[in-house]
Amino acid sequence: MRIAPVNLKTLAYALDIEGFDSRPVLQQCGIESNEALREDGEWMPVGVFDRMMAAAIEATGDPAFGLVVGRSLALMKYGVITPLVVSTPSLRQALEDLGRFARLALDRSEIELVESGQGVHLLVQPVVHGGLSGRFRLEQVATSAVQMLRFAGATNASIHHVDFPHAIPTEHEARYTSTFGPRINFDRKECVVRFDPALLDARLPSHDPVAYLAARARAESALAALHAGSNLADQVRQWLLGAFPRLPTVAETAQHLGMNERSVRRQLAMLETTHADLIQECQRLMAERWLAEGKMPLKQIAESLGFSSVHSFHRAFRRWVGLTPSAWREGSGDNPRATSSAD
Q: Whose C-alpha in 2, 114, 196, 325 is 20 to 30 A from the C-alpha of 23?
């Protein structure tokens, strides 16, 4: 799974606001500084974010720092979601927008509205699970969820209870009560925030129609750009397959598509792939096709795919499919089987 760099930028800014230096925390993740992260830059593995949260806990000495980040002013600085929530007409609309536009920063929303005959609640399912980092993210998202409820007018009485799957952190119990209210349960199956359903559709006095429509337009524009890139991987595959045996560079692919190189890298990252990944995928597809046809010796296939030797082709093919090229060809069904001294 990959996430947008805005998640890391927000955490780094929250550290700086709270009087900590975010640079060594980012450097532990291989990032020079917050300025080096671009909001529209390449998405990165969620493991990098996991390491950053662990480093933030170490730097602050606060295992409950997620409670701080969940209501930090840093959330106002980056991304398109917060301006929507601030100007939204209702809590229900805010949650719908959150579900629709979460894809701009993550592969899914971490907050889900659940309505049933037993009432309504928010189910919190963070993208990072387990360990201190998982608890950090869980508490950050849960704090943000409760902040949304309070923004919609919720009081301690209208927040019926908040459940957490981890044990009670006795040393920070007062902070939990201050953040979530007095009715908190620990060691539960899931993280759930149950609240008064009347909050969902109450008109918010802070609703600004002009600001909301402007924020919505920006979010829709960003989402449209993301969707426009959803078939980019297929376009790159077709270009690469047509270019064999030559292996085009990212710059050549970008020029062919009429895009700049950074946009190609960023949009492919949003699709959780890279130009190099697609080259390997196309190499595998062509290798399987030629092996199944049985007309070319392995040496010629290796050369046609851009490998320096049959040995390197063997190693790559085994990594792709778990078999050597010869074993795969022998088990490729009713297709012709060619033999050669190169096998």
A: 2
